[in-house]
Design goal:
It holds the Pfam family rRNA_methylase. This protein has helices at about 5-15, 35-45, 55-70, 115-130, 145-160; strands at about 25, 50-55, 75-80, 95-100, 130-140, 165, 175-180. By secondary structure, it is an alpha/beta fold. The protein starts with 6 loop residues before the first helix and ends with a strand.
Length: about 180
């Protein structure tokens, strides 16, 4: 990994190399909608994105960002846990799944992704990927709950021949990227 490349930028680059127009994609953690917009642009008018978030504030922010980009018709917004990801798409039908763990920037930092739900969602996401598909997870150690969740994601990923990309030019604990390919 480029020692100065942010994990989110690397995730976007990895997904852009795989996701095709007309594909289905999932943003497992919609947050403020940046990844959802990115995915919606890549899948094109013939594609579909499913975006999850447990916070209504995140769903509203994502909806506004999509509307501003005229991309709402490509996205299904799910106000609920990404732990139910497998209930929203058929097995083998998704080109990319993105996770950006932690808390919603600009909101209550006590509301975070939860390790048990994240692990359930990762398992479900793997089953959704089409051959050649990709799953990316940006982990954020260093906040309450983030160390535990990041360690659990790494343990999960190590059983699946994942790639883990860490920046070398920053203080620890720093965000890092996990990539799993189908």
């Amino acid at each position: 990994m480029n020692t100065h490349e942010r994990p989110t930028a690397r995730a976007h680059r990895e997904i852009a190399a795989v996701l095709r127009e007309g594909d289905a994609a999932v943003d497992a953690t919609a947050g403020n909608g940046h990844d959802t917009v990115f995915l919606a642009k890549l899948v094109g008018a013939a594609g579909k994105v499913i975006a999850f978030d447990v916070q209504e504030q995140a769903i509203a922010s994502t909806r506004e960002r999509l509307a501003a980009e005229e991309l709402l018709d490509r996205v299904e917004l799910v106000h609920g846990s990404h732990g139910r990801i497998a209930d929203h798409a058929a097995a083998g039908s998704v080109g990319a799944v993105m996770f950006n763990l932690g808390y919603l920037p600009g909101a209550d930092h006590a509301v975070i992704t939860r390790t048990d739900e994240t692990l359930q969602a990762l398992e479900g996401a793997l089953g959704l990927l089409r051959p050649g598909g990709i799953l990316t997870v940006v982990c954020y150690p260093g906040h309450a709950g983030g160390d535990e969740e990041s360690a659990a994601v790494v343990a999960w990923a190590e059983k699946r021949s994942a790639e883990i990309f860490r920046r070398l030019d920053t203080l620890k604990p720093a965000p890092f990227l996990v990539v799993v390919r189908a």
